[in-house]
Specification:
Layout: E1 28-30, E2 36-38, E3 49-50, H1 51-61, H2 87-95, E4 99-101, H3 104-109, H4 116-124, E5 133-136, H5 140-153, E6 156-160, E7 180-184, E8 191-195, E9 200-204, H6 209-217, E10 221-222, H7 235-241, H8 248-251, H9 254-257, E11 258-265, E12 268-270, H10 286-289, E13 297-305, E14 307-308, E15 312-320, H11 323-335, E16 342-346, H12 348-356, H13 366-380, E17 389-397, H14 399-414, E18 419-420, H15 423-431, H16 439-445, E19 448-458, H17 462-479, E20 487-495, E21 499-509, H18 516-533, H19 552-556, H20 558-571
Parallel strand pairs: 5-7, 6-7
Antiparallel strand pairs: 1-2, 2-3, 4-5, 8-9, 9-13, 10-14, 11-12, 11-13, 15-17, 15-18, 16-17, 16-20, 19-21, 20-21
Helix pairs in contact: 2-5, 17-18
Length: 588
């Protein structure tokens, strides 16, 4: 079995961690000097020793670094559920020479995404149900034939792209008695064509974000779609979850980038007959494919808008005295419709965490202040380090366009007490996005459970939602007997005319707490209730999956859910695509 160039290997576990985030050679680790370092050579932070991080962890979360809770050894065949075989299906699959595997490690790798529950199970428990087989199609024709065989033999298909889901979307339903096939799209990773006149590209759905941008860059183009997970998430996954990227202010979200999409369903292929910028032919079929989370079929090919690579990318940052004026500034930027490619505001808790990730052994704040000195050092003296909030900026365009953007943004910021924080602080803040997910693996090694969740909210509710959700988490942790103060932080990551996306990070030291994941999920569910009560959405871009199903009907209405169920019943009468996302489909 050979992997296609530019893709993940068929055996992803050779490159990626089997029980955590990202590459096997990249991780936060305690070194022989007693300091935390980031290993490998793939990232700007790689090889960095962080003298302040150890103390920050001990002071903020109460972690005892002498008390380690390592993961169990890598699971072997005896630890993994025996595969269920539908022999007639397997026989026809072999006859058609599809690449497939029932190797226990291949199956286990595709049994999960990256929710806390799933990763904790890998480290300390067992999955009750995992895929029975992995199949790798190489093109749309392969997918059509595999789906036909599954329908013929009543075999379940769960599409698998990058596997970065944090909604439980690829987990196998425990109650499913039929054979389950994980349809891994990773070998469907080619750009089929680039139309330079219309600035569009036709791409296979299994391509990973960083590979898509690399291949387009060779021709001088980009999509500009950069979700936090772009190193590992797939184009098909972006479509299936209605993904959003860090630079959506210029390039748009996936629904803005998508021109055409093809999906293979149990009934056949669904797609529009033309590839045009807009069409008025009743309800848009693209909009029930986007966000369908694998319950209707498999996304196989996508036509996207592309743009020439911008001449200049420049980073920046703004320091605010506290969170409220920072939010007010972002609101004004959105109102004036002058947002740069990316503008993201972190609260003080995340700001302090970011400082702890620096390599300098000088005072905790010194390196940041050094970055600000060249601008208005005398003004720094009025900022309280334990209230400071920072916005990171990315400007893209021509030199003239970037200069105009910078002046306008910094002028607006000054009206809200903000001051420039330097280009390097902005660059570093943006790049930290790609390593921040690795921190949870270190946390789990020292009895800390943690996760992120997100929402979208109208502008006039942003501050209330952030404050009330944080307060709710603190109260819930106290009521559940958690002995150490939890870590709770938030950031405003995407802005819109009518509101913003808010990300929360939450974790706690679970020493002395039985069933820590259950407790964590109870607290997070309470936090989600608080989000909804404060006018927030169920999800801005992570999707529903299985972990947010209880609020789905409330979110879309009973009639709305019924319409989605009706589409599901028509497209998939046998419930072949039985991942169980959005709502419970067992009765279909």
């Amino acid at each position: 079995m050979a992997s296609k160039k530019g893709s993940f290997p068929l055996k992803r576990q050779e490159l990626l961690k089997w029980n955590g985030w990202g590459y096997k050679d990249s991780m936060f680790s305690l070194n022989k000097n007693g300091n935390i370092t980031f290993t490998g050579s793939r990232y700007q932070l790689s090889g960095t020793e962080m003298p302040s991080l150890k103390q920050w962890i001990q002071d903020t979360i109460g972690v005892d670094l002498d008390f380690k809770t390592p993961s169990q050894p890598e699971l072997t065949a005896k630890d993994i559920p025996i595969a269920k075989h539908n022999e007639p299906f397997l026989s026809e699959l072999r006859n058609e020479r599809f690449v497939h595997s029932d190797d226990p490690q291949d199956r286990l790798f595709r049994a999960h995404g990256h929710t806390l529950h799933e990763i904790f199970l890998l480290r300390e428990g067992r999955f009750k149900r995992i895929p029975d087989l992995v199949v790798w199609p190489y093109n749309q024709s392969d997918v059509e034939r595999i789906v036909k065989l599954a329908c013929k033999h009543n075999v379940v298909i769960i599409p698998f792209g990058g596997g970065t889901t944090v909604s439980g979307a690829v987990q196998c339903p425990d109650h499913e008695t039929r054979m389950i096939v994980s349809l891994d799209t990773s070998q469907m990773n080619e750009i089929l064509w680039v139309d330079e006149k219309n600035l569009t590209a036709r791409v296979q759905s299994g391509i990973i974000g960083q590979e898509l941008e690399r291949q387009l860059a060779e021709k001088g183009y980009c999509t500009g779609h950069e979700p936090d997970s772009m190193e590992f998430s797939s184009l098909g996954g972006w479509v299936a979850t209605r993904a959003s990227g860090m630079k959506k202010n210029v390039y748009g979200n996936i629904e803005d980038l998508l021109v055409h999409v093809t999906m293979v369903t149990a009934r056949g292929v669904i797609e529009k007959s033309c590839q045009v910028p807009r069409i008025s032919t009743g309800p848009d079929i693209h909009h029930f494919i986007m966000g369908s989370e694998g319950i209707y079929g498999v996304v196989t090919e996508v036509t996207l808008k592309i743009r020439p690579i911008p001449a200049i990318r420049k980073y920046g940052s703004i320091v605010f005295p506290d969170f409220e004026p920072g939010v007010a500034c972002m609101r004004e930027v959105a109102k004036q419709k002058c947002a740069p490619a990316s503008i993201r505001l972190v609260d003080n808790e995340q700001f302090l965490f970011g400082q702890a990730l620096k390599s300098e052994s000088s005072s905790f704040m010194q390196s940041f202040i050094d970055g600000v000195k060249k601008f208005y050092v005398t003004r720094v003296k009025g900022f309280d380090p334990y209230k400071i909030c920072v916005a990171t900026l990315v400007f893209e365009g021509t030199a003239e366009e970037v200069a105009i953007q910078e002046k306008r943004i910094y002028d607006i910021a000054s009206n809200y007490g903000g001051m420039p924080g330097g280009e390097e602080n902005g660059r570093r803040g943006y790049m930290l996005t790609y390593v921040i997910a690795y921190i949870r693996d270190l946390a789990l090694d020292y009895s800390v459970v943690a996760e992120s969740f997100e929402t979208s909210v109208p502008w006039d509710r942003v501050l209330d939602l952030c404050r009330n959700t944080k307060d709710r988490i603190y109260r819930e942790c106290k009521e559940r007997g958690i002995h150490f103060s939890p870590y709770v932080s938030c950031r405003v990551t995407q802005t819109y005319d009518a509101g913003a996306c808010v990300y929360f990070y939450f974790g706690f030291n679970y020493r002395g707490v039985p069933n820590p994941v259950d407790v964590y999920e109870q607290v997070e569910n309470s936090a989600r209730e608080e989000v909804l009560a404060n006018g927030g959405s169920l999800s801005h871009h992570h999707g529903v999956g299985k972990i947010r199903q209880k609020w789905y009907t409330e979110t879309v209405s009973t009639v709305g859910k019924g319409a989605v169920e009706a589409v599901k019943s028509y497209l998939d009468p046998q419930n072949i695509f039985a991942a169980g996302n959005l709502f419970q489909q067992a009765k279909l």
